[in-house]
Amino acid sequence: MKKKMTQEEKIAYRKSKTALLVYSIVCNIPVCFFLCLFSSISACSTFSDGTLHIAFKLLSFRDFAINFGVSFVLAMCIANFIPLTRIGRWFTGLFGVRNDTYTGNMQYRLLATLITSFIFFIIISPLLTILNCFILYQKGWETALLSFLINTPLMLLVGFVSSLISDITAYKAAHKIDHTF
Fold first, then answer.
1. Rounded distance between C-alpha atoms, residue 154 and residue 167, angstroms
2. pTM score, whole prediction
3. At 1, is the pLDDT very low, low, confident or very high (cuts 50, 70, 90)?
4. pLDDT at 153 over 70
5. Where are the domains of the chain?
6. 8 Å CB contact between 111 and 95
7. CA–CA separation, 14 vs 181, rounded Å?
């Protein structure tokens, strides 16, 4: 039988959920923006004779907006339904890093951000590749696979760095709502 929550427990629960929502929004907006930006630039780039050529006229705001919207919804679902904190603590524990607090613990921040960035990547990147190659541009499996493989290192790097940077602001915003966040 479930124990009925007291009024204080209900308030604490709401604060915790609101803080998570604010954290997710503040962190995911810049991460999704930069991932979609670099993905769009990569899609209209060629590398030949040792020179990178970017055809900026091929950039499409409509496609960028669709990708951003899809990636943001996916990122919000991941952040709110996958136990990322628990996974981050497990992963950092594998390296013997103290993981009881996030504040002032750079090793924990780096490793936790690495594993969560990887989780976001393995869910969002393949789905955006499918969206772009099969729905928006009607390309084949070979193009989709090649595009995914070529962009993997860049997308992992962009996701990790943008997560690491936006995490600071997101954490501060969430911590103002719930001091235990």
1. 19
2. 0.83
3. low
4. yes
5. 13-42+54-177
6. yes
7. 12
What own/partner pairs with CB < 8 Å and gap ≥ 24 does 19-23 have? 19/174, 19/175, 19/177, 19/178, 19/181, 20/79, 20/80, 20/174, 20/181, 21/80, 22/170, 22/173, 22/174, 22/177, 23/79, 23/170, 23/171, 23/173, 23/174, 23/181
Token output for 161:
């760095």
Signed CA dihedral, 88, 89, 94, 100: sign only: positive
Residue 47, strand partner residues: 52
> Could you tell me the two tokens for 107?
């090793």
Report which of 34, 26, 32 is spatially closest to residue 170, judged by C-alpha positions. Answer: 26
Return the closest-CA partner of residue 38 out of 124, 108, 137: 124
Q: Cα 108 vs. chain centroid, distance in angstroms?
A: 17
